[in-house]
């Protein structure tokens, strides 16, 4: 077989202070295939990708492109060989426009001068190819996470790509955007491009993959065809079988804890009313863009609203007042956990302790022993892969950072906890543990609101499901009547009424 169009990593390894992130890993990518990388949070997937992208140098082994050994001194060297990478942490410049980000560092020039018209035109052409109606002049910092991810993908496509490497590209996309991404991937592989793809969703492996490599604790533990039974893949990843995904629970529903009346934010939310009671887990379903994140941000006081009220345990919370919301016992685990939930420079223990600071304080001093004890408990239960409690959050893998943000709020035992897409980017083993922690919180008489685009998760977790579309509440389904079909039917109901101009 010719080595033309092949990317190979042979015996590569990487040690960070205190962590052997990768050990003697072999990986290869053939032209026209999709090679999926699977592994738990912290298994070493992103580290492997960063070697292919020239971001990290491996301590051992070698990398070959087209059969020749290469040495990357930086990402530019990898890009020159046609390796385009979409990293897990988004790398866009928030102050620049969509078009400027797509052509960052290599804008089209005419007579040595930036050619703005060409920049916008070329960017538009790429977005059209992706079937996106995104405004090329929009400022990236003002876009939602899904749109920002799509700009990242457009940027990778604008390069002359022979190898496309994607680290959890679908984690923030809705189903229709995933469909579009996959059809683009198929177009590229038909042209001979090789694709590396990371996802925690096993359904996507069979759908888009050809081969799967599984990493566990920095070592490659197996390689299989993509059609392999998901249970076997999980076993390879976790080293054991994972039990029932949704732990059953006896809901003991008590007094009303949360009341939302006529909540309206012009152009975003329209007259939303519902209540939630002690012991209840209420799911919020709907398509991306339905207004779910806007709703929970408004409830928590992160965004202002124009009319309506939010009442927690009988106390009315003034609009846009996070301090008041928190004092009333409300907590929000945001969708964009990297940006909003974590202090990157602080340690694992400090981050985990942030929501319980006052609780862990005795006579004005933080009880560090107690803080560490609780942090250790969260690390154990959520399977957070850390070198130690003092490791800076910045150096954790993407999924482990998310576990910290979730763990911090679960520790705080808020009376009303709102989770926006709680298991996105979280590995299968830890998912079950998060579900169990949500149940414990509800069992203790608290209320949990869960926004999730994962329908089985939404249905498996919730006692009751509210469905939003187009900024409105379209319906409410009780446990037994909530099925995937019914949720979907309500989620697309705005279209059939033809009032999409909100
Ligand atoms: N700069 C760093 N300093 C120290 N340790 C690091 C650094 N970057 C990564 N690590 C560690 O290396 C290990 C592998 O991390 P990596 O990001 O490759 O995991 P991953 O498989 O991509 O996980 P996830 O699914 O959570 O994204 C983790 O234990 C992580 O904490
Ligand atoms: Mg990663």
TrEMBL record:
Instruction: Quote the CDD domains the UniProt record gives.
Output: ABC_Carb_Monos_I (cd03216), ABC_Carb_Monos_II (cd03215)
Q: Which domain of life is it from?
A: Bacteria
Q: Which UniProt keywords apply?
A: ATP-binding, Nucleotide-binding, Repeat, Transport
Q: Which residues form the ABC transporter domain?
A: 7-242, 253-495
* GO MF annotations, alphabetized: ATP binding
Name of the featured protein: Sugar ABC transporter ATP-binding protein
**What is the species listed in this Swiss-Prot or TrEMBL entry?**
Saccharopolyspora halophila
